[in-house]
Amino acid sequence: MQPRLLDSLDLQAFTDAARNIPYQQLNSDLFHGLDVWVRRDDLIDPIISGNKAYKLFFNLIEAKKCGAKIIVTCGGAWSNHIHAVAAAGARFGFETIGIIRGERPPNLSATLQDAERFGMKLLFVPRALYRQRSELDFLRIIGLWGKDFYFIPEGGSNLPGIKGIQLLGKVIEETAPVGFDEVWVACGTGVTFAGLYSSIFSASVIGVEVLKAGDAIFKGVWHWIWQLSGGRYVYEQPIEGLLDASPEALRKNLLASYHCGGYGRVSRALIDFKLGFEGVNSSPPVDQVYMGKSVYALSKTLGSIARAEKKPVLLMHSGGLQGRRGYK
Ligand SMILES: *Cc1c(COP(=O)(O)O)cnc(C)c1O
């Protein structure tokens, strides 16, 4: 299975690419007989990979529509989002500026080396200042205020980002090879989860939080669901499947205890599990920051709902493989 290349911002072509993503049935006894499938969205493009492709698609269309020449975004040294935005800028004709957390190190991470090679201008911002990136005068302090650009928040977490994920959710509903009981996805900002939760109703959507976020991911997701429940953005009418949505119901679908110590942190058990998982020939490669924690959580809980029937479970491969260069 070779990655394809997203070479236009055409909605039909993008939807077709999403429809052609393979579903792979896992042959691993790590899941105790549960029928686990992986949707290989890491293969949607060799560089603009996984959920980042979906979160960027409508952002890129918006940027073109408003005539922007420059896209600005932010992230950390190993950010999959920074990597994807830099690549997308090069491919679709935007200049890109990446606001990067921390001082410029003597040796750039492989991710940032790529980003520079793709033409992204890196703007390093001390950590204390970076923490204020949502505050009113942040852009002024870093010297970008009044410049002409299209801004994408960290991780692609805005409404066009969600809209792209909802496209994915609809494609999953259309193309699922078997009737899945649950769809699992890794959560950083929770936008990918929110997009799937608001577009897949034939299965429960389960999110694995990969950072120690307290209530933050849950609250962020509820905020998106609340905004989307009127359905005015993507759908012409209220989203019927969300009519019964409630914070209590939502909370059950977000798993907060598999972060293994925090974002980017790992435990011995996680590493051992990941090695065992990848040791099976047919298993797809996974990163330890996002996907590793998701497969680990899945094996630990074996799906949270309707387990008695052992119906098949789908895991979205959200990409992130470029980040594997950050650890050995
Ligand atoms: C960014 C990322 C996520 C998290 O997506 P959110 O929408 O921020 O929750 C999950 N998996 C991978 C591989 C990622 O790169």
Helices, strands, pairings?
Blueprint: H1 11-19, E1 23-25, E2 36-39, H2 51-65, E3 70-75, H3 80-92, E4 95-101, H4 110-117, E5 121-125, H5 127-130, H6 138-141, E6 150-151, H7 159-175, E7 182-187, H8 191-197, E8 204-209, H9 216-228, H10 247-252, E9 254-255, H11 268-279, H12 291-301, E10 313-316
Parallel strand pairs: 2-10, 3-4, 3-6, 4-5, 7-8, 7-10, 8-9
Antiparallel strand pairs: 1-2
The structure holds pyridoxal-5'-phosphate.
Description of the molecule:
The chain is an alpha/beta fold. It is built from twelve helices and ten strands. Strands 1-2-10-7-8-9 form a six-stranded mixed sheet, sandwiched between helices. A four-stranded parallel sheet has the order 5-4-3-6. Helix 7 (159-175) crosses helix 8 and helix 8 packs across helix 9 (216-228). The chain binds pyridoxal-5'-phosphate. Pyridoxal-5'-phosphate binds at residues 50-52, 80-81, 155, 186-193, 290-291, 318-320.
